[in-house]
Amino acid sequence: MSLREIRENQQIVRRMKEAARTQVVSHAYILEGDGSVDKRCLALEFVKAVLCGNRQSDGSSCDCCISCQRIDHGNHEDVFFVSAEKNSIKDEAIEEVQRRLANRPNQGNRNVVIVERADTMTVRAQNRLLKTLEEPAPGTMILLLSENAEHLLPTVRSRCVLYRLYSHGAEIAENVSLAAAQTGEHWLNREPFYRLVKSAEAALSDRGTALEFLDALELWLRDCLISLYDRGGELSSNRWPQTAPQLKSIAGRCGKAEICKAVDAVEETRQDIQHNINTAYALKGMFLR
Ligand SMILES: [Zn+2]
User: Torsions phi, psi of 161, nearest 5?
Assistant: First the structure.
């Protein structure tokens, strides 16, 4: 298997392939998703792509070189797993991580650590990990798999790239999709600020909903872009209240450059919220950009 064959969480998979292809890889990621999401599988495919000795042009792993095979068989010397002992990940386990990371990689140029159920790390363990996140050795790649990243210390979260994962079908709640589609339409139509805030109201309540709202808004904007090229078949779904021709007309009036700017604003706002900026403040700020 490789990233190429993964059908869910396409936005995240695309970013993973891009990181592997360009080898611009962050030193730490949080893969957040509930129990129905196979975070371990996605983490392994990401690591395979990054370490692959014969990567494909889109950034996916070849799935057959020695590195890929070793990761599949769980015996790659540079890929280290940490999992909860009883119900938590203790300080000693992170101390072992630090010892591993102090050594040079054996095969490639990266040391990879995959922490399963990372939200069960004790506060002491997280504080120890924080030191590694602050000053990672070159080539360090740490993946924290978590059901709820809010259980991690804000200082840990803010030093990681957060990938939010959804299980197939359950991706984004319907009311959040609706709010995102309405807000997107007001936004691209340059309607007054108060209308934008009103339609986004549902997303202003808490951080989780706000991030979900931003995911939905980005999907909606992406569908607007795609509609410009009249490839209706690629629309992410018929989840929106607008029909494909309606999306096309909204996008046509606004233009490609403006939509791309809006997508950038959404991504920046997502980062702001991940860095613990107040959600209502960050969302309102997004519309004013
Ligand atoms: Zn390979």
Answer: -80, 125
Determine the distance separating the centroid of ligand 1 and the alpha carbon of 179, expressed in angstroms: 42
CA of 51 to the centre of ligand 1 (A): 7
How does 149-171 read in b/e, with b if 16+ C-beta sit within 10 Å? beebeeebbebbebbbbbeeeeb
Ligand 1 mean position to 97 CA, how many Å? 25
| Domain extent listing, the chain | 3-164, 174-288
pLDDT of 224-258, one tens digit each? 887 887 654 555 556 788 888 889 899 999 999 99
Least confident of 129-143, 155-169, 179-193: 155-169
- Residue 89 phi/psi, 5-degree rounding, is -100, 120
- The two structure tokens encoding residue 225: 């872009």
Q: Tell me what percent of the residues of the chain surpass a pLDDT of 70.
A: 96
Report the top-level CATH class of 174-288.
mainly alpha
**Highest mean pLDDT (candidates 73-82, 161-170, 238-247):** 73-82
Q: What is the DSSP string of 259-277?
A: HHHHHHHHHHHHHHHHTT-
Is this structure's pTM higher than 0.90?
Answer: no
Tokens of 100: 């591993």
- CATH architecture assignment, domain 3-164: 3-Layer(aba) Sandwich (3.40)
* Ligand 1 geometric centre to CA of 199 (Å): 46
Return the DSSP state at 149: G
Extract the tokens encoding 154: 């804000």
* Centroid of ligand 1 to alpha carbon of 77 (angstroms): 15
Residues in the chain: 289
Rounded to the nearest whole angstrom, what is the distance from the C-alpha of residue 52 to the centroid of ligand 1? 4
From the CA of 19, how far away is ligand 1's center (Å)?
A: 15
* Centroid of ligand 1 to alpha carbon of 48 (angstroms): 7
